[in-house]
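G., the chain you wanted modeled:
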Amino acid sequence: MRTPDYPSSDAAKWSQVDTWLAEKLVSEQPDLKHTLTNNANHGLPAIDVSALQGKMLALLVKMTRAVRVLEIGTLGGYSTIWMAKALPHNGIVTTIEFNPHHADVARQNIANAGLTARVELLTGAALDVLPGLSPPFDLIFIDADKVNNPRYLAWAIKLSRQGTVIVGDNVVRGGGVIDPENHDPNVQGLRDFIQMIAEDDRLEATAIQTVGEKGWDGFVMALVNT
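Predicted structure as tokens:
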């Protein structure tokens, strides 16, 4: 069983339900399982999205009919592969990873999945890479360091069009996002990120709290209206 990021006395049951739902609803192909194994073998942290969350991202790609997807934070490419598999034949995921070792492992995983032609993996600090990208993207997944989430959001909007969907991961952090005693810079970054979304008239947004094998966390989803 995966060690949850934000433990709870109910964590074991949450994980069991995740497993049951994934068995019913998610066909996790061998290349995706290989990705998680290869990540672990190379010492990457086990902070990938869950299989159910990966399938959710894939469905969002299909529902939005996305052709160009931007991912900020690749890690070992697990979520990247989920999204790339859901793209049409002419689609591409542009994904940005700061850590060169993580990027190398992600390239291995993407190649193993036969998706090298469908993924553009850029290595470097996202705030250095983003200014060089050309808009618009149809779907943008923000899943990197939370300190910089407000800056990532500003770039996501610049790289969007009307109808672009922006998704932010790990926005609840075991309830830390509303804990006044929690002064973690990542939590403050998330508070600012959510406040920016709330105050931006161009965005229409909601949030979903999640429990499961990763513990208690959640997503923000925003639609760019103008």
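Helices lie at 11-25, 30-41, 51-63, 78-86, 100-112, 126-129, 149-158, 185-199.

Shout if anything looks off.
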